[in-house]
Amino acid sequence: MSTVAVNSNESPVSMLSSRRGLLLGPKGWSAVFSALLIVAVLVPVLNLMVPEGSLLHLSDYYVALIGKIMCYAICALAMDLIWGYTGILSLGHGLFFALGGYAMGMYLMRQIGRDGQYHADMPDFMVFLNWKTFPWHWAVSDSFLGQMLLVVLLPGVIAYVFGYFAFRSRIKGVYFSIITQAMTFAAMLLFFRNETGFGGNNGFTDFKRILGIPIAQPSTRMVLFVLTGLTLIGFYLMARAIVNSKYGRVLQAIRDAESRVMFTGYNPLAYKLSIWTLSAVMCGVAGALYVPQVGIINPGEMSPAASIEIAIWAAVGGRATLIGPIVGAFFVNGAKSWFTQVFPEFWLYFLGALFIAVTLFLPNGIVGLFRSRKEGKA
What we know:
The chain has one domain (28-48, 56-303). It has 14 helices and four strands. It has helices spanning 12-17, 26-49, 60-84, 93-111, 124-128, 144-168, 173-192, 218-243, 246-263, 268-294, 304-317, 323-342, 347-361, 365-377; strands spanning 204-205, 209-210, 213-214, 296-297. It has a two-stranded antiparallel sheet. A hairpin with a 2-residue loop joins strand 2 (209-210) and strand 3.
């Protein structure tokens, strides 16, 4: 049996370079194409073409539920990039999700037109508060393109500014997590105020149209579902390309030994700041896709509990696996949907017990469990 000597002076980046592989293997690409077929072909056929009385019919309820969970899965994937691969635990990603949702919600509120309760050109909550003109931050709310730019720019700019000062000050670990949670909690309190122009505690709801098309009609909801699925698959492939690149190897080296990365000539600030900003933008896009499918956005999406759940999805599925957080988002939210209908008073207890069990017995999550069993059989 041959042995391989390891040079203790070897940089963390070069040590990780041997792990670099193809974007996906044959089985991986087969899984991606299968997911594409399910999202773009199978689900639309089962929902729109199969009669409602048939056992094969997929109801609108399950289409909306799966679409919502796919939005959550994008957030979990974003969390994996910064927590699983870079070692940055954020407890404030619900803020970026909500900002993207509010940007989309503002456009949808303008699309209501005079179909609101007061039949006015302004949203009902503004009429109720006796506002005569739109606030300055509603300036481009009637433009779909303008609001979609805000979906990307607003979470991205806020994340960049916050991350720049936090990472430059070398804030990390539990201190960084607490600060991110405080940031999203402060934003939630701000959005609860009526004078901010975001609907107060009720937020935005009662949407009618998107791009002039009725939002409630089945074909519109199916288009939104397919777009969400394609976005999730696209973000997964992008994340896979990132972690398999030299950039991704540097991120993992920062996670494992940031001080050594600095001594080898790399600047962790640029790498941490860029992946942090990208992760925030992904959550913003997820929020924008979430709002027209669910039909509401309110400050509750910024609550600390909502951000903590994102971390739980990643932990339950398996950090540093990319597919694990997606599995975790579907598993936890699927269980939540069932528990809140059958045993609503026990859901939070189940969630807490699940997180404790995963932490103690499945540190690598669901995907890690299956991989270990597969390797054991091999």
